[in-house]
Amino acid sequence: MTIDDLQNFLTNAPIADTLGLRLHDAAVDRTTITMPIAPHLTFDGTTVQGAIVATLADFAAVACASMVARPGQFVATIGCETHNLAPARGERLVAVGRLISKPGRRMVAAADVYADDESGPLCLTGLFTAAAIG
User: Fold this and answer.
1) Taking a C-beta distance cutoff of 8 angstroms, is the pair 111, 33 a contact?
2) Does domain 3-133 have CATH number 2.40.50.180?
3) What is the mean pLDDT of each run of 10 residues along the chain (134 residues)?
4) Short-list 82, 92, 97, CA closest to 32
5) Which of 4, 31, 34, 35 has a CA that sits 20 to 30 A from residue 118's CA?
6) Could you please report the per-residue DSSP string of 11-76?
7) How many CB atoms lie within 10 A of CB 70?
8) Which pLDDT score, from 0 to 100, does residue 2 have?
9) Going by C-beta distance under 8 Å and a sequence separation of 6 or more, which residues neighbour residue 98?
């Protein structure tokens, strides 16, 4: 998958639109996706619910795996473990994903989510297992 393919996927995926996800860069070693913090995604108008933060991390991690998929393959999450480390609040969340395992039919990627920018508080870290299908 190319960076243009990934951008088109995010542009056309209803969940990505609902969350306001934006791709900033994409490669096997690093993919960055941001999400604005909006009141409808929070508990109290400021703090984003943890599963939504994990969804952002999932997109960033699996995007790295998607960059090594063969043409015609779709990469899907088949497992994850996430840890919420700090409240997810501020103007936006920044997810940075990276592929940990070698490319193949099953891959492991990681993602960290920060508040506002990569120097902000680390809100969530996670490992994601993905399958290349097709």
Assistant:
1) no
2) no
3) 86 94 90 97 95 98 92 93 98 97 93 96 98 94
4) 97
5) 4
6) HH-HHHHHHT-EEEEE-SS-EEEEEE--GGGBSSSSSB-HHHHHHHHHHHHHHHHHTTPPTT-EEE
7) 9
8) 82
9) 28, 29, 30, 31, 61, 64, 109, 110, 111
* pLDDT score recorded for residue 5: 86
Could you tell me the sign of the dihedral formed by the alpha carbons of 101, 102, 106, 111, in that order? positive
How long is the chain?
134
Sheet bearing 106-115, strands edge to edge: 22-26, 31-36, 92-99, 106-115, 122-133, 74-84
Tokens of 16: 């990505």
First to last CA, the chain: 13
- Side chain identity, residue 39: P
Specify the pTM: 0.94
The owner of tokens 């297992």 is 129
Distance CA 48, CA 35 (A): 11
